[in-house]
């Protein structure tokens, strides 16, 4: 199982701050929890969210097909900007 930590208002949307989900590719894990399309649009993470895998921004890893194991940690952080 892969651990997911949801930050800010995401914990209210998903009903908890931490989830344990079956391991798989990053996109499959996100699809598993995102039944309403809050995080994903098709096979892409919506803008406005930072996703870290083991503390590394997935934008730097450049792959949503990253295979996750039971020791991996995903953190999802909403990044809202106002003005």
TrEMBL record:
Keywords: Cytoplasm, Isopeptide bond, tRNA processing, Ubl conjugation pathway. InterPro entries: Beta-grasp_dom_sf (IPR012675), Mopterin_synth/thiamin_S_b (IPR016155), Urm1 (IPR015221). The keyword Cytoplasm applies. GO terms for cellular component: cytoplasm. GO terms for biological process: tRNA thio-modification. This is Ubiquitin. It comes from Metallosphaera tengchongensis.
């Amino acid at each position: 199982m892969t651990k997911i930590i949801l930050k800010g208002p995401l914990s209210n949307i998903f009903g908890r701050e931490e989830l344990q989900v079956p391991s798989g590719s990053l996109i499959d894990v996100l699809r598993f929890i995102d039944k309403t399309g809050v995080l994903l649009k098709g096979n892409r993470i919506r803008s406005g969210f930072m996703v870290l895998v083991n503390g590394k921004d997935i934008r730097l890893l450049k792959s949503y097909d990253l295979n996750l194991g039971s020791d991996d940690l995903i953190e999802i952080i909403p990044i809202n900007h106002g003005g």
